[in-house]
Fold:
Amino acid sequence: MRTEKESINILGIETSCDETAVAVVTDGRIIKSAVVASQAKLHEKYGGVVPEIASRAHIEKIYPVISEAIAQANVTKDDIDAIAVANQPGLTVALVVGVTAAKTLSFTWNKPLIAINHLHAHLQSAIIDEQDLQLPAVALIVSGGHTSLYDYHSPLEPKLLGSTIDDAAGEAFDKVASILKLPYPGGPVIEKVAGKGNANAIKFPRSMLGKDSLDFSFSGLKTAVLYYCQGQDMKGQNKVGSMSEQEIADIAASFQAAVVDVLVKKTQTAAEKINAKTVLLGGGVAANTELRKALQQMCQVEPAKKLLVAPKQYCTDNAVMVASLAYHKFKAGLFADLTVEPKATG
Ligand code: KG4
Ligand code: ZN
Structure:
């Protein structure tokens, strides 16, 4: 018979995009193991994630990654209290691999199954170590597939305030990297190149979609970079090949500054709207130092807010965030059954 004092070990699985990740987390915050097999190299030559390749690579890696996570955590199946899996949103053909693995473990080990929203899990990665979370919080998710703002009152029910109407922030980084002939994934490399550039060199557009809008649009910015490099309506010559390193760095820095400006202004508007005491930042783009710095500055503006950001290794896709959020669902008795399906949206 389980007593209240015993700790809860959850095995989390994440396969929503191009990382096969498994983690064992105790009580939502003690990380026993965190294994990630990245497929970035497989997708690099295509400049983005190819769903069919992602799916096959997940199939190949899922079993070794689960085994490794269990071995590193130094646990057996008897120590595991539940299996959690990100089942939405993401690439359906990728999600299905994690969902099938989780259902199989749940059935054969006779453990409860917990379905996790991948985006809500990204938010969880910002608060894993926080003992004194002041609510309400405004939460910004910036990933390869999503740019969303939430009114956050509890880990279980973030309320969507706004999201991108076209490209996600990370997607814009990836596409601009591709325009500049830089490798995939674009975010880290743009950040690096931008470090040597002048952020005021080119005035790229900041699309705000109206004064009070909490939605985002980054496709105009991406197109502005494209036209800058290849002429209006792409009717000019592609200048990227003949550009100096400095010119490329200036474009990268000016683009990055435009993205950061929009993200910070919208987060500020959302924070005012809900009187946020805390700002949460998660998702792959949250690894960006300029964004972290700018949000930190924003949070110092009165009324001051506390910024909580995921540690860099847990900004991009991982299973720690899945297992950690699952702990809250476990405590609330929110379990899934074996009919749970992967869902592209959510
Ligand atoms: O959250 P994530 O791992 O996957 C999705 O859920 O989409 O985010 C991946 C995205 C990619 O678009 C990548 O270019 C971007 O995060 N990214 C960054 C940085 N590191 C990763 N963007 C800007 N700066 C970074 N340092
Ligand atoms: Zn993600």
